[in-house]
Amino acid sequence: IRCWSNIPFITMPLSRAHGKSFAHRSELKHAKRIVVKLGSAVVTRGDECGLALGRLASIVEQVSMLQNQGREMMIVTSGAVAFGKQRLRHEILLSQSVRQALHSGQSQLKDMAIPVLEARACAAAGQSGLMALYEAMFTQYSICAAQILVTNLDFHDEQKRRNLNGTLHELLRMNIVPIINTNDAVVPPPEPNSDLQGVISVKDNDSLAARLAVEMKTDLLIVLSDVEGLFDSPPGSDDAKLIDIFYPGDQQSVTFGTKSRVGMGGMEAKVKAALWALQGGTSVVIANGTHPKISGHVITDIVEGKKVGTFFSEVKPAGPTVEQQAEMARAGGRTLAALQPEQRAEIIYRLADLLTDQREDILLANKKDLEEAENKGRLALPLLKRLSLSTSKLNSLAIGLRQIAASSQDSVGRVIRRTRIAKDLDLEQVTVPIGVLLVIFESRPDCLPQVSALAIASGNGLLLKGGKEAAHSNQILHHLTQEALSIHGVRDAVQLVNTREEVEDLCRLDKLIDLIIPRGSSQLVRNIQKAAKGIPVMGHSEGICHVYVDTDASVEKVTRIIRDSKCEYPAACNALETLLIHRDLLRTPLFDQIIDMLRVEQVKIHAGPKFASYLTFSPSEVKSLRTEYGDLECCIEVVDSVQEAVEHIHKYGSSHTDVIITENEKTAEFFLQHVDSACVFWNASTRFSDGYRFGLGAEVGISTSRIHARGPVGIEGLLTTKWLLRGDNHVVSDFSEHGSMKYLHESLPLPQRNVS
């Protein structure tokens, strides 16, 4: 803890040797000394007369938060001219109105023209007010700020440079935020191409920020402007794409547009300053500081390593970026969809063969993952089981893939509706791939070939993001998948994301990804659903599955179904979590058998509120009836009827899979029709809720949503439709009241499906 003005600050251990910039965004969280450059467009209002106070307050809040974490923050700010222009305009209007009132003797004023205000005078009038505003804002966070005005000459004079350097270091030592600006009241007009060899000339705040960043051995320079970052062509043009990472030498691939509405420098000046700072060992990010949705956290997001704006890096990755991978997957997916069904099936059959032929290599890679996970101790036992592959698992995978290949012959391009709109005007609705799928999965390498096969069968491009714990297994399984795809030249259709992309960043690629499918913990699914603003997410956040034991249940069936539902694979999302028992079964031999079986299987029992009220000495009472245990634990609760069981499921369930055990057909049918879940079973284990067991070959996941696909999602769930209209010189005006044609809207027979 260090103190300034009797205010304690908690410091965090942030230190690194300066001289080399950060190679990856994920390393930015280690930045200790940070310069934030606020462009004129960020600080000023849209009318260029006055400051954007709300935006400025948000920036001060973020800088204060980082300062109080123990970082050393500096601000290079514009805004003095705009603030001064507002003050001078007010003074001129007031002065003119007084003179006019005295001259005319009337209170009514005529229209008054405001003269063009000289920028240096505006700066002189605005600097004190701008600094007073910063001081007032930083005071709210118990932080002191200090103003420093500089000109280009201050950097050319060695003594002045040393003085400036010493002043800044002393301010940072005392936990004061320096606020630096060019002294626009005296600065001469900028001279083009006035840079000294190897030294950037201070002719705008971009170059000032870069010069300061290098002089002060800063870790990170954040340049905020009114555009999202650096584009490969002027923003707003049709083909403009935001550049995520910019490398030295890429300038020739960029076309610069005009500068922003205010300020001295355009994007070309920012890039030049950024590259100079990067060469001096300072990492740089150029981002949008004006967007209302992100400006409130843009600085903290950058420091946390999130994909915001353009990151300047000297280290070029060996492989493609994730954006390039998504584009490759889309192009590959379109080629895949254009193949004959037999060719897509051949690819899947080949992948199934490779899983068994390369069994030893796969298990060896999986063994490395298991050993690393056990040594690091970062995975719970249920997750270790999911991570583990075996010969039997690989054989089951191969069988499932062959099922997919056999059933996929008539998936893409299948006609599901034909309508004759009018004579010689026929309409068809046909199945087509969704586009590019992003599947994010944890601790389940067997998911990779399953999902790949389904994507291949449905003609979709695929991006896969696996967990670090399965890196070796995923690598070899993806290699085998691409080997299978190569037999028909569509190797790029399935991509494995190996870069340091955070899941949240992947979820922002709404222009490249059409559907996200999470496979993992309920927390992972919830995080993805929250992060994916513009991309639909297919899946379920929880698997709270119920088994209801009715009064007419068979003694022989009850223990078998409950044991299988809970104990066969407790980590699965389709495992039993809550056991509902009819009140009349309490203290009966059947109830005792259930309890004895659970004890033998070492299942920990949690009592629901009603069940606990019937017991003198009850097990631990459940904390929540809406709990997914994912282990050998379950909740037992008592209900008075099948109607109450249905109500309990609707209140506490997750619409995944729910079961009734009864011999009463009427009761069973009531349960089947009234429980509103993706899968509802009668006298069968919850574990049947699975794509392979449903005969789908495999599944990309189980969906509890109500749109598009529900339950285990196989090939059909990865398809959408498009409409094909075939006409002969038809126009809508022919069908008007006085037109020559009439609508028929006749249903036509569908073509015969290939079911071989």
From TrEMBL:
Any one GO biological process: L-proline biosynthetic process
Catalytic reaction annotation: L-glutamate + ATP = L-glutamyl 5-phosphate + ADP; L-glutamate 5-semialdehyde + phosphate + NADP(+) = L-glutamyl 5-phosphate + NADPH + H(+)
UniProt feature coiled coil, ranges: none
GO (cellular component) term, any one: mitochondrial matrix
Aspartate/glutamate/uridylate kinase domain residues: 32-288
Membrane-crossing residue ranges in chain numbering: none
GO molecular function, one term: ATP binding
Function: Bifunctional enzyme that converts glutamate to glutamate 5-semialdehyde, an intermediate in the biosynthesis of proline, ornithine and arginine.
Sequence similarity: In the N-terminal section; belongs to the glutamate 5-kinase family.
The protein's name in its UniProt record: Delta-1-pyrroline-5-carboxylate synthase
Organism: Platysteira castanea
